[in-house]
Amino acid sequence: MRGPARGEQPLYWVGSAKRDLLAFPEAVKDGIGTALSIAQFWRETPRGEAVERERAPECWRLWRITTETPYRAVYTVRFRWAVYVLHCFQKKSHRGIRTPKPDVELVLQRLRLARQDHENRYGKSKRET
Fold first, then answer.
1. Residues 104-113: b if buried by 16+ CB within 10 A, e if exposed
2. pLDDT band for position 42 (50/70/90)?
3. Of the candidates 25, 77, 30, which has an alpha carbon nearest to the alpha carbon of residue 51?
4. CATH of the domain at 29
């Protein structure tokens, strides 16, 4: 296992996000893994979109589509010292691109857990990003 590279933010997984990602097809895991690696260095990804901008503007959704099945990973770079992966899931509905409400609620719950974890690890700061 390698140590972090210069400028690389640590990546933390909340809840079952990592286990859920590992259940995805290889091509999907590779694509999302690459995008998360980019987020660790540059705090953004080329294929990210905000999740429910009004409710969770600090969270970003990554996606990779394989054979008409949308897979998504939601992460945040809101916190100054780390990147948190909040949720990985397969979108079941093919109606629209909107993230289903139960998934948004889970993201918001896990965002609170990530905030708490970040404060425990690094202390409370005036500015999170």
1. bebbbebbee
2. confident
3. 77
4. 3.30.2310
